[in-house]
Design goal:
The protein has 313 residues and is α/β, with parallel strands linked by helices. It has eight helices and eight strands, in the order αββαβααααββαββαβ. Helix 7 runs antiparallel to helix 8. The longest helix is centred in the middle third of the chain and has 28 residues. The C terminus is likely disordered.
Length: 313
């Protein structure tokens, strides 16, 4: 008796497999090696799959056309190889990579080459404009100056009596100077001094501590990477290490701290694998200043060691 094909079982394609196929398809969208794919995402619901991939496109290129080419190829190739319905693919461009010089193409001038090689060493964090503190301070100063100016003009131009608040303020300031011995004078002076120091710090520091500068591929090209994005990249890379159950990453300006939990396996080997995975991910980010990695691996309460070798007597 032959069982009908519909009753023989079902084939389930895991999200991980679809994600790997999408990553490989993105690298095949244009010329070989022109597009590099980062971490992809895939969600399978029945016979449909939602796919997203992060890519680095060659430079120079028309980003709209190149992104559309990658999107169409990823959706078509993933649907063909998996048999699922992929209505569309999300493509996120995270960076640009300069095209390699082909045979017969003239080399760039020495000045441009030198600038390109050492551009990463001069990369700096973008300077924050601090619009909010400046706007608040300007509005307060403009309001105070406007009120005082209105009262002065009304006295000298219209012959009105000066406002009581201005008369009282002048009298009070004349009798309550810094040497008046008031208890509030010292805290007020400290507060004004602290405010001045804070304004100087805002004026002399770049700010935007949440962004890390990247190595620019060409002169006058500036790129930054969010610390949160760096933490996501490192966390995803360490999560793929066998035996690792949880990962927490904290990224600073110079150091990235990775804390992982080991559910099973040999701790020393897992620690080396976690360090290598995090190091490879950090090296591929293209940061102007390499991050110093601090890796900490702890065994989970349910940790199981490697099974004993049965062939050993």
């Amino acid at each position: 008796m032959t069982t009908p094909a519909a009753d023989r079982g079902t084939t389930t394609i895991a999200d991980r497999a679809v994600r790997r196929i999408a990553e490989r398809a993105a690298t095949e969208a244009t010329a070989p090696g022109a597009v590099s794919a980062g971490r992809a995402s895939a969600t399978v619901r029945g016979r449909r799959a939602e796919v997203g991939v992060t890519v680095t496109l060659p430079y120079p290129a028309v980003l709209d056309d190149a992104g559309e080419s990658v999107r169409a190829h990823v959706a078509e190739r993933t649907a063909r190889l998996t048999g699922l319905t992929v209505p569309s693919a999300r493509v996120r461009v995270r960076g640009l990579s300069p095209r390699e010089r082909t045979a017969g193409q003239p080399a760039p001038p020495a000045t441009e080459t030198g600038a390109t090689e050492d551009a990463g060493a001069r990369a700096r964090r973008p300077w924050s404009q601090r619009r909010l503190p400046v706007a608040v301070l300007a509005l307060l100063a403009a309001a105070v100056c406007g009120i005082v100016l209105y009262d002065v003009v009304s006295v000298h131009a219209a012959g009105h009596a000066p406002a009581r608040w201005r008369v009282r303020a002048v009298e009070w300031l004349a009798t309550h100077g810094p040497d008046g011995g008031a208890a509030w004078s010292v805290p007020a002076a400290i507060a004004v001094f602290a405010l001045g120091v804070w304004l100087l710090v805002l004026a002399l520091t770049p700010g935007r501590r949440g962004r890390l500068p990247m190595r620019p591929p060409l002169r006058d090209v500036h790129a930054v990477l969010e610390r949160r994005a760096v933490a996501v990249f490192l966390r995803d890379a360490v999560t793929d290490v066998p035996g690792v159950s949880r990962v927490a990453v904290r990224v600073g300006r110079r150091t990235a701290r990775v804390r992982a939990g080991l559910a099973f396996g040999e701790p020393d080997g897992a620690r080396r694998a976690v360090t290598e995975a995090a190091g490879a991910a950090a090296a591929g980010l293209g940061l102007a200043r390499p991050l110093r990695l601090r890796v900490r691996l702890k065994t989970e309460p349910t940790w199981r060691g490697a099974p004993p070798d049965e062939s050993t007597p």
